[in-house]
Amino acid sequence: MPTVDNIELYHDPNNFEPRFQRPMVLPGQLNGMWNPLGTGSFRLVGCTVTSLVRADGSTGADDPLIGGQVTEDDARVSAKLVDLDVNDQQVSMIFGLRVRLVDAAGAELFRGDFEPAAFDDLWSRFDPGRPGDLSAAYQSVLTNVVWAEETTHAPLAELREASAAGLLSVKFTTDRAEIDPSSPRITYGRVIGAIGPAGPDEPRHFVASRRLRRQAGGTFNHAPCRVDTTSGVVSVDLANSLPVATSGGPVASVGPLHLAVLPPDGVPRRVAALGTVDEEFLESRAGIADVRLTAEQVAAVVSTRIAVVDSAARPVVLLAENADATMLRADDPVFRLHPGGAEATASTTLHATRLGSPAAGVEITLGGADETPGLDHPHLLTTDVRGRAEVTLVGGDPGPPGPFGDGRTFSVPYGPVGSPVEGRLHVLVTELYQAPEHPTWVADVQPIFQRYANLYPAMRKVLDLSNHHDVVRYRDAIKYALSLPVAHPNHMPVTRALSPAKRDMVLRWLDSGPVPAVLRIDTPEALRSALQQALLVEQAVIPPYLCALFSLKPNRNVEVAEIIRGVVRQEMLHMALVGNLLNAVGGRPRIGRPGFVPVYPGRLPGPVLPDLEVRLRRCSVEHIRDVFLAIEQPEHPIVDGRRFTGAVLDRSRIEVADTGELLAASEAELDGLAAWFDKAEYPTMTIGWFYNQLARAVIGLDRELAQQGGTLFAGDPARQVSWPGAPGTLFRVTDRHTALLAIHEIIEQGEGSPHELDADTRPASGELGHYYRFKEIVEGRRLVRDHEGRWVYEGAPVRFDPDDVHPMVDDPDASLLQDGSRAKAQADVVNATYTKMLTGLDRIFDGNPQELADVQGLMYSLEVEAGKLLELPSGLEPGTVAGPAFQSSAVPW
Fold it and tell me: What is the 3-state secondary structure (H, E, C) of 95-136?
């Protein structure tokens, strides 16, 4: 299983970091635990037939079936092992397992579908703290059994004849799971099991007979026991009961065991020898001890409590029935309920036995005193003449989903009235979801797929579910997987936790057109959400630029440093402009924790440039060319059917105060700007397209609310931030005009500039778009007009010497640095300073604009501390130094 899925905090996309998809490094670095790249597959590998028991009790040690293989389907993917939820990992289920019996020559004798089942009786054979010592049992049936057309094998014919209901019973125990990432057998373990006939009216997921229970202070685990009064054979299944001598070692030496009765005086009386239990017994006989009793012995065990005892002179009870020799079990104990539809209800049967026979009239309680809304069930039941009681579970609204999942888990205890709890029903109730009429990628689909992309990173080798382009490219395969039954191994998602309402929404979105809708901003709340995404886009591009800037050695590559620093300052201006926009429309900008903080390597947040991976690397011509130019790529929209070039706005007709207030403006210019935004068509999912969508939403929502007597710009003007001396204009946004001017300022300075370089003279340094400024570094020359009036990179040199760059390790990550090293200590200082800076920015835009100077001080401090870090060896790659990682983790390890 992908163990990154096992930690609750990782389920919140806001918390996710790339290190969670790396294996743990002990001590100290939990990361994604021991198998973060797991596929969730459950495979039967190297499982051989070790023994055969016929109906008459003969074992047939030389039978040709011995040495055959019990294996999985040879024509489809492996089964999936799935937890109910991150909050309930104690009932992991197997879905999609097809079991095949193949003889030594490779011929298939039968195949059948394993009915999904959860493990039961989880315990530790030795050390509870070591996963490899954990053991659990799966009990189920094989359905849709297909037999070989002809068989001359008598025991197999007997099995087929005995399976009159078309079912086979299967029970296996799993243990010895290897979790050491350095082991070649990581994720492998041991399976010990048995296959036999299943009766038509038997429970499918446990043996409704007698339960020999663990004794206080004992080392044996519970064991099922069946007494066949017709044949006189007693079978005790000890596969999941035997302790081991050492961690991961063989079965502990306990000597010969005996079946005993426990008369009312409590002194055990041996009835029959079960023989010696050891590793050979466990692996060759599946841990099942069969003993044939006399009629007198059968009469004793069917009327008296039974036990397993050792061979001491005064027998020690190792396992025994409870005081009244009863058992109460649910046939299906695990449920996924989806309120609002046909899958909101499920039922199970509770079976009660006494001395191995159905117990009628047993009163059963379900639930506890701390019941919570979201699940309805009966609280008192009584078994019928067959010893059964039906339980109906109804999922209701579990309340708003939390950050770690889409529903709530319930653990419903049950037991006889007045007796201890016998078991629990485990229920996941997904949220009561109302699908939107027009779902979009950003608001509806991507939040679902992002979580699966984070928690099942192995999928990225095929497709990236967080990438809109990948999802559209593979839509047919995704639709197929989403539509499969949950029991199918290819069912998507692997977790089986996606509600039908959400699944249907995703399918409807996938079918909505050649390019399903990316973004819809048709309400003030949707606008506020989109502006928060724009804020994160601006935040996300600053660390890569700063990383390149900081990697330049002091007073070297001066022209390059000047260009990058100028772009960084304007990106900070853009971030501030979006913050003012968001405050103006009644939003609350969120910067830093507990919200999302961009991580590297990674994609830009929001609906932009999904195919671009943004990395933190030292300054180089290649990095600027491949990443920075891709971020800042100019976009020329189509306006009135033609590619637009030229100016949108005459800034000479706009008068703005140094503090950002709009003092005067030509109505014609402002109306022309609004009309241009309405007409401009950009390529989808570019930065220019995103800002144009924001502008259109401002225009439309402002008009709509004004017609209703309201206003879009209901935010507190006191929350507007001013930046005198900014590298551009930080508009104080109070209405539609200033909002559009703010968006235009962002576009004009770099993100999707609509300008061709067609001015008569070279633009001033601050007016040249970011793309062209970075291109000067790549070309090594300033941008000028030649004698024919063409813009060419043939001006003054822009010198870049790679030897004057710190040899910073790619994609710095403080978690990779050696604990106790100077680099690790300084990296923590840099990250702490960065976190303080984000916290300070959050305060500025959350009603404290007067604190701008404090955050500016933190920005300078960040550069100083990063400079110290860049002098320290990384300890990761020879000749490299550490670098700023711009990390602000929400996870305390």
Answer: ECCEEEEECCCCCEEEEEEECCEECEEEEECCCCCCHHHEEE
Q: What is the Cα–Cα distance from 318 to 307, expressed in whole angstroms? A: 7
Within 13 Å and on the Cβ side, how many CA atoms surround 421? 10
| DSSP label at residue 628 | I
| Number of CB atoms found within 10 A of residue 324's CB | 11
pLDDT tens sequence across 462-515: 999 999 999 999 999 999 999 999 999 999 999 998 999 999 999 999 999 999
The Cα–Cα gap between 419 and 536 comes to 56
Q: What is the longest distance spanned by two Cα atoms in the chain?
A: 116
How much is the average pLDDT of 75-100? 94
Q: Could you identify the residue written with the tokens 């899925």?
A: 5
| Of the listed ranges 213-222, 675-684, 742-751, the one predicted with least confidence | 742-751
Query: In this predicted model, which residue has the larger pLDDT, 23 or 542?
Result: 542
* Nearest by Cα to 536 from 571, 585, 586: 571
Rounded-to-integer distance, Cα 56 and Cα 699, Å: 85
- Is the full-model pTM beyond 0.70? yes
Q: What does DSSP say about strands 317-320 and 210-214: parallel, antiparallel, or unpaired?
A: antiparallel
Q: Which of 236, 225, 356, 230 is nearest to 295 (CA)?
A: 230
CA distance 798 to 559: 6
Cis peptide before 724 (omega within 30 of 0): no
Give the chain's radius of gyration (CA, Å): 34
pLDDT at position 643: 87
Rounded Cα gap, residues 837 and 841, in angstroms: 6
Q: How far is CA 409 from CA 87, 375, 432, in A?
A: 7, 9, 14
**DSSP-H helix ranges across 328-384:** none
- Quick check: 559 pLDDT over 60? yes
| Backbone CA torsion sign across 412, 414, 418, 420 | negative
Orientation angle between helical segments 770-779 and 558-584, nearest 10 degrees: 160
490: alpha, beta or left, given left = phi > 0 and alpha = psi -120 to 50? alpha
Q: Tell me the β-bridge partners of 237.
A: 288
Residue with tokens 């609204």: 397
Round to whole Å and give the CA distance between 858 and 837: 6
CA distance 8 to 13: 11
Contact 154, 52 (CB under 8 A): no
Residues whose CB falls within 8 Å of the CB of residue 148, separated by 6 or more in sequence, listed in order? 107, 108, 109, 110
**214-234 per-position pLDDT tens digit:** 999 999 999 999 999 999 999
749 close to 770: Cβ distance less than 8 angstroms: yes
Alpha carbons 347 and 80: distance in angstroms, whole number: 24
Rounded CA-CA distance 120/126 in Å is 18
Report the DSSP beta bridge partners of residue 351: 329, 388
Pure H helices in 26-74: none
What integer pLDDT is reported at residue 761 of this predicted model?
Answer: 45
Distance of CA 853 to the CA centre of its chain: 40
pLDDT of res. 370: 66
Burial 28-42 (b: 16+ CB within 10 A, else e): eebbbbbbbbbbbbb
Q: What are phi and psi of 109, to 5 degrees?
A: -100, -40
Supply 805's token pair.
């760059």
